[in-house]
Design goal:
- 45% of the residues lie in helices and 15% in strands.
- The chain contains 14 helices and 11 strands.
- The protein has an 8-stranded mixed β-sheet, with helices on both faces. The chain has a 3-stranded mixed β-sheet with strand order 6-11-8.
- Helix 5 packs across helix 8 and helix 9 runs antiparallel to helix 13.
- The radius of gyration is 22 Å and the shape is globular.
Length: 398
Amino acid sequence: MKSTVVDKYLARYAEPEASSIPSAPGQWDHVVCIPACAEADSLSATLACLARARGAERALVVTVVNARASAPDAVHLSNAETLEQLRASCGTTSAPMALGQLDRMGGLVVDRTGEGHWLPPDQGVGLARKIAGDIALRLIHTGCVQSDWIRCTDADVQVAADYFESLAAPISGASAAISPFTHVPEGDEVQQQAMRIYDAYLQSYVDGLASAGSPYAFHTIGSLISVQAQAYAAVRGIPRRQAGEDFYLLNKLAKVGRVCSLDGGMVRIRGRLSDRVPFGTGAALLEIRSALEAGRPTRSYDPRVFDGLRWWLVALRQFVECKDIEALKEQVRAAPSPLGEALAETLARLGAFDAAQQASEQVSGDTLHRRLMEWNDAFRTLKLVHGLRDAGIVTDAD
């Protein structure tokens, strides 16, 4: 791959591991990146499933076993077991990075969990994903991996037989692709009910954004994401966040290309409880289960929040034509009751009107509309939806 953007990223922004990859004995068609933290009970099943997918014999799996020094003893014990299993399976040494053969696939094992290799105190899964992604980018750039897609997944999933085939055909203008998915309910009936509620909650949000005409109507789950290599470099890789790195990565990628949804077999994600990160599936299940057991309302979206979003996006299109900020404010306030004032107040608090005014003074036409959509990104869209909820117009209620 020839690209100034990729060269610049690898030279300035890539993690050190991307410059110390063991010599590769050959080439692969695909590369898959997996962060693993306390996954000794699930990683082997995920790797076995990947190995059964068609084309797996031409795939490389980069696994970053990771933890902070302050992690509980159970995490360190699980990670030590994971490293032992991986190294035995790959036939590799205990070096911080080692390359071997993992079932039918290539296996690159990265140790960011042992003493001297721990993640920094304020880092987590985002950095682990970035290390794997940066390694994958380097291998693509040097021709060791033929596909220009960096596949990201997790250690608690089962992929479909067509996992490696789903990106075989070129996708014009795409910066990222999202695999279809389903959560596999686990535990007792209450936990399984919590999983069904959370799945519906996630889907209603994406469906609501789509109905409003938002360009950010896609699932933001790390185990489903594939990133086009040049787009990965253009947005400077995966954010080094302790949680939510998948959301912020896709938020950036949507501004440099199209985030598309793939067809084909589903990625099956374990519906397990977890408190390792402050939000995400595991934390949401804990919250919903607690609400169910206490008889409290559980998560859902009132569709009127998406009516408000749609009203705002239509108003912005008209603003592009007239560039009249007062007319924009009046149009927002004219939204059907009870949305109007709440929508206007929420947008003002977010600085949306000031941003629109500033953009209109700099550009016009399609460029202005693109600038407005970039400002009203996935993060601010989420803030708008939650702002309408918090205004008392709508509530999270079952």
